[in-house]
């Protein structure tokens, strides 16, 4: 009898070890992919507050997101049979740096810039007072092994280059593009409120894995301040990326006006926005269509395909057709086009 008990115990132990091993392999062993899938359709109104706004929305504006998590064996296998799951190589997401925290930090900065653009686009469309003040170029990151690593720090603000006033990252890059590796450039920077002069020798950015062109070895961000009347605030929590720009602009514009653009409709969408109100392409459009469909959206604004490389409009319509959605897929090139479409829907609704 004791022998049988010992044998049963060994069987249980072997089974337990095999179960733990299988669990570890399936759920704990990483694969070199991220798994991307539909995220959420989030109400924009709670995120944005225009001072003294009195316009009450009958409907809702939604921004759409994708969900992204590190892949494991289970996720990899599931993606082979579930079309909602997309495998994206980690290197395509994280770049050469390969740091997830760094990636999230970058996405949050991109979101911040997108919010500035959304305010500018909306207030200009509404004809309301708004001013953009360019304050210089912030050093967002210093690249290892490049000239800047010796003299610049994250958070430094570059204000001049060789006695030339620098107000934006584009100006700095354009100025350096005319030089050659080995040439020197003198920068005036602000660090903690103190002005300093630093001289650097340019090097090829290929040394840090970039293009073969001259640079000092930083990731630059235009430091700017947007002042609008009435004042507007945006709180998007930890959401990153630029793709909520269009929907932010629509919500701001709706709060600025006395006409409810939603007119009782559930309006979802995506797209980057420029300060001039131009709508740009984004990633993961098929997942965002599914997120909007789950929220029973009536309309989905998608960036219109304009160039040979553009595919948002095509993929959005294909996805909607595959899932049998009756959601209106509306391609737009500008904020103005989106506003005009909504106004036309209101007129059509009154006529019917």
TrEMBL record:
<dbReference type="InterPro" id="IPR001478">
    <property type="entry name" value="PDZ"/>
</dbReference>
<dbReference type="Pfam" id="PF13180">
    <property type="entry name" value="PDZ_2"/>
</dbReference>
<dbReference type="InterPro" id="IPR014721">
    <property type="entry name" value="Ribsml_uS5_D2-typ_fold_subgr"/>
</dbReference>
<keyword id="KW-0472">Membrane</keyword>
<dbReference type="Pfam" id="PF05362">
    <property type="entry name" value="Lon_C"/>
</dbReference>
<dbReference type="InterPro" id="IPR027065">
    <property type="entry name" value="Lon_Prtase"/>
</dbReference>
<comment type="similarity">
    <text>Belongs to the peptidase S16 family.</text>
</comment>
<keyword id="KW-0378">Hydrolase</keyword>
<keyword id="KW-0812">Transmembrane</keyword>
<dbReference type="InterPro" id="IPR008269">
    <property type="entry name" value="Lon_proteolytic"/>
</dbReference>
<protein>
    <recommendedName>
        <fullName>endopeptidase La</fullName>
        <ecNumber>3.4.21.53</ecNumber>
    </recommendedName>
</protein>
<dbReference type="InterPro" id="IPR036034">
    <property type="entry name" value="PDZ_sf"/>
</dbReference>
<keyword id="KW-0645">Protease</keyword>
<keyword id="KW-1133">Transmembrane helix</keyword>
<feature type="domain" description="PDZ">
    <location>
        <begin position="136"/>
        <end position="193"/>
    </location>
</feature>
<feature type="active site">
    <location>
        <position position="288"/>
    </location>
</feature>
<feature type="transmembrane region" description="Helical">
    <location>
        <begin position="12"/>
        <end position="35"/>
    </location>
</feature>
<feature type="active site">
    <location>
        <position position="243"/>
    </location>
</feature>
<feature type="domain" description="Lon proteolytic">
    <location>
        <begin position="238"/>
        <end position="345"/>
    </location>
</feature>
<dbReference type="InterPro" id="IPR020568">
    <property type="entry name" value="Ribosomal_Su5_D2-typ_SF"/>
</dbReference>
<keyword id="KW-0720">Serine protease</keyword>
């Amino acid at each position: 009898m004791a022998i049988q008990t010992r044998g049963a115990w060994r069987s249980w132990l072997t089974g337990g070890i095999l179960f733990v091993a299988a669990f570890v392999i399936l759920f704990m062993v990483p694969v070199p992919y991220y798994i991307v899938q539909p995220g959420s359709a989030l109400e924009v109104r709670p995120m944005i507050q225009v001072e003294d706004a009195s316009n009450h929305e009958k409907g809702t504006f939604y921004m759409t997101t994708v969900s992204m998590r590190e892949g494991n064996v289970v996720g990899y296998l599931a993606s082979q049979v579930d079309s909602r799951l997309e495998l994206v190589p980690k290197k395509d997401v994280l770049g050469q740096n390969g740091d997830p925290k760094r990636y999230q930090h970058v996405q949050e900065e991109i979101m911040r810039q997108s919010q500035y653009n959304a305010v500018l686009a909306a207030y200009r469309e509404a004809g309301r007072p708004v001013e953009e003040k360019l304050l210089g170029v912030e050093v967002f990151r210093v690249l290892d092994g490049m000239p800047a690593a010796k003299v610049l720090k994250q958070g430094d603000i570059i204000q001049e280059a060789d006695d030339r006033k620098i107000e934006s990252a584009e100006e700095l890059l354009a100025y350096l593009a005319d030089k050659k590796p080995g040439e020197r450039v003198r920068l005036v920077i602000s660090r903690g409120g103190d002005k300093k002069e630093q001289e650097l020798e340019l090097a090829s950015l290929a040394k840090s894995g970039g293009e073969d062109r001259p640079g000092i070895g930083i990731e630059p961000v235009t430091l700017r301040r947007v002042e609008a009347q009435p004042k507007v605030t945006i709180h998007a929590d930890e959401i990153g990326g630029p793709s909520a720009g269009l929907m932010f602009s629509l919500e701001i514009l709706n709060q600025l006006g006395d006409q409810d653009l939603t007119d009782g409709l559930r309006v979802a969408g995506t797209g980057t926005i420029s300060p001039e109100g131009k709508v740009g392409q984004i990633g993961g459009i098929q997942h965002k269509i599914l997120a909007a469909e789950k929220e029973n959206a009536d309309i989905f604004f998608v960036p219109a395909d304009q160039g040979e490389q553009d595919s948002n409009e095509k993929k959005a319509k294909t996805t909607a057709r595959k899932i049998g959605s009756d959601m209106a897929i509306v391609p737009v090139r500008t904020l103005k086009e989106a506003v005009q479409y909504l106004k036309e829907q209101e007129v059509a609704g009154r006529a019917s």
